[in-house]
Amino acid sequence: MVEELLAAGAAVGAAGLIYLASAARIVKQYERGVVFRLGRLRGAVRQPGLALVVPGVDRLRHVNMQIVTMPVPAQEGITRDNVTVRVDAVVYFKVVDASAAIVNVEDYRFAVSQMAQTSLRSIIGKSDLDDLLSNREKLNQGLELMIDSPAVGWGVQIDRVEIKDVSLPESMKRSMARQAEADRERRARIINADAELQASKKLAEAAQQMEDTPSALQLRLLQTVVAVAAEKNSTLVLPFPVELLRFLERAQPQPDRSDGK
Length: 261
What we know:
3-stranded antiparallel beta sheet, alpha+beta, single chain
């Protein structure tokens, strides 16, 4: 009798251990567990740790709550100013409602991917080429809002959307390079013309000063001679100003005409 009781107790204990082993589920720290009992959502979301379910009746679905980095394939489109471009992006999102992510949408990753591609093509069509190249922050915010609006019902939150690269046709790249070169040449000519204008004003002031003070012209002539002589040239061409001749003429003594000759 005692042996039968011990055997029955051992059998019950073994059955209990088997039941416990089959009913125990482990939910990791970055996951949440969604339980379906006979196909219907059962209770609250299971938190990380040990979760018990009814074997054969309950089914536990694990939902990853980490931030997902999803690249958006390059989308080709025509901008508002009729330029064909290829744009790719990256989406950062995470699940905030595990039950909605399982019940409300068949595959939330695929849904977010398709919505991101559609929104990216829409952004391309609504934007100019200059906006895609230089005003990406505003486009990123608009793209994030377009994806996040339907994703709220899927239990998904869009953290950030970034446009990675904008590919242009080779002909457009050459045109932009020629435009940039022409703009740099225009600025160089304007700077050169402004420098010539300033130099001409200074030369005019210097000429006016030399006209008022003839000796200043002689000093300038001597400085020029010194500068040319420093080059060790065999031939020195020295300009002789008319003012110097007049100065020498005035310096010569006048003949005495008192004798009537």
